[in-house]
Amino acid sequence: MSKSVILVTGGTGYIGSHTVVELQQAGFETVIVDNLSNSSAEVVDGIARITGVRPHFEKVDCCDRHAMAAVFDKYPGITAVIHFAASKAVGESVERPLLYYRNNLVSLLNVVEEMITHAVFHIVFSSSCTVYGQPAVLPVTEDAPVQPALSPYGNTKQICEEILRDTAASCSALQAVLLRYFNPIGAHPSAEIGEWPVGVPQNLVPFITQTAAGLRKELSVFGNDYHTPDGSCIRDYINVVDLARAHVQAVNYLSGGKNNPAVETFNIGTGKGLSVLELIAAFQKATCIKLPYKITGRRAGDIEQVWANPGKAHTVLGWRAQETIEDTLRSAWKWEERIARVRRG
Ligand code: UD1
User: Fold this and answer.
1) What is the largest CA-CA distance in the chain?
2) Catalytic pick from 153, 181, 226, 253?
3) Does the C-beta of 101 come closer than 6 Å to ligand 1?
4) For domain 204-234+272-314+323-344, is the CATH number 3.90.25.10?
5) What one-character DSSP code corresponds to residue 106?
6) What is the DSSP string of 1-28?
7) What is the pLDDT of residues 157-178, one digit of tens each?
8) Backbone φ/ψ region at 131: left (φ over 0), alpha (ψ -120 to 50), beta
9) 203 CA to middle of ligand 1, Å?
10) Where along the chain do the CATH 3.90.25.10 domains lie?
11) What is the pTM of this model?
């Protein structure tokens, strides 16, 4: 029997590349579509080195409807799509909202329209815990109310979820899984793939590893006057390989035909909240590197605390996070050392 083929948009990106690895290791054939706007074609080499199999790669922008149609025509065996391709910098989305609405919404519209035209009816969508804002009850469950988005980026995630719900309501064959990620961190343990931030990192862990590597003088801890035990913000940091595995489970779930309703939502987090100061301590413990940091003021738009109740993903998808925070932070550091060698040439 030939392998199922999974189309992965944004498959050379941070989460996409780790997901392609896990899919291939689970026996799927993969087709990556990526416009390389925020990633490099060398990621395909890294995937091939880890898995021993080179994924198909098409340098295509999902906003190009004709090019997307051609991809579906070229690979008639596609059985499901995992849609990652999107712009994701929160600050940039505030400065350039139209760019974010066009890119993130048009790419999903094109993908879903071409799926239906080509009778591909299973999609896994990359959503975010950002849809919950500051939840009233923690840990947050999937039925917590979605709150008004704090940025155009966050709003595109909410609108994309609605597009999929409305389309599934009118096209009964369409089946979707929405995965709401908490804070993905770390890298593949091989250090062949990882996150390569452009410019000064905005996210906490890349900033920590760049500071540990001496590229940044010190880390700023954004606020220690929150209503949390140590005053710093709390997040649910999920290992990127664990997160990637959730996509494999989601694809298997869809192909098993068990999902009811047609659009299912899952939190993908560890279920454990860590403060910024606890994360710094865990990094120091895991790597034996002393991290210079100072407490500064709050960052505008930050929520105080959020962590997942991942029980539904466990019960329904059979998924749960497995990696420890120390192993995850070691993988992030190993990746930073690897890219430091690449930067030095
Ligand atoms: C951010 C995005 C979120 C996205 C996620 C992906 C915002 C408002 N939200 O979440 O939509 O899904 O990234 O990972 O940008 N921190 C510091 N110093 C730093 C950097 C961060 O103290 O130099 C703190 C932040 O205040 C926050 C925590 O670290 O409490 C995590 O920050 P970050 O990694 O940027 O993620 P989020 O803001 O949670």
Assistant:
1) 59
2) 153
3) no
4) yes
5) H
6) -PPPEEEEETTTSHHHHHHHHHHHHTT-
7) 999 999 999 999 999 999 999 9
8) alpha
9) 5
10) 204-234+272-314+323-344
11) 0.97
Specify the residue with its C-alpha closest to ligand 1, atom 6: 183
Specify whether 153 is catalytic: yes
Residue ranges of the chain that CATH labels 3.40.50.720: 5-184+237-269
Question: Looking at ligand 1, which atom is closest to the CA of residue 154?
Answer: 11
Tell me the CATH number for domain 5-184+237-269. Answer: 3.40.50.720
Beta-bridge partner residues of 34: 59
Quick: pLDDT tens for 60-72.
999 999 999 999 9
> Pairing mode, if any, of strands 234-235 and 274-275?
antiparallel
Angle (CA) 28 182 214, round 5°? 95
Q: Give, for 107, the enclosing helix (H) or strand (E).
A: helix 97-117
% of the chain surpassing 70 pLDDT: 99
Which residues contact residue 99 at a Cβ distance below 8 angstroms, ignoring those fewer than 6 apart? Answer: 87, 92, 93
Beta carbon of 183 within 6 Å of any ligand 1 atom: yes
Give the DSSP letter of residue 273. -
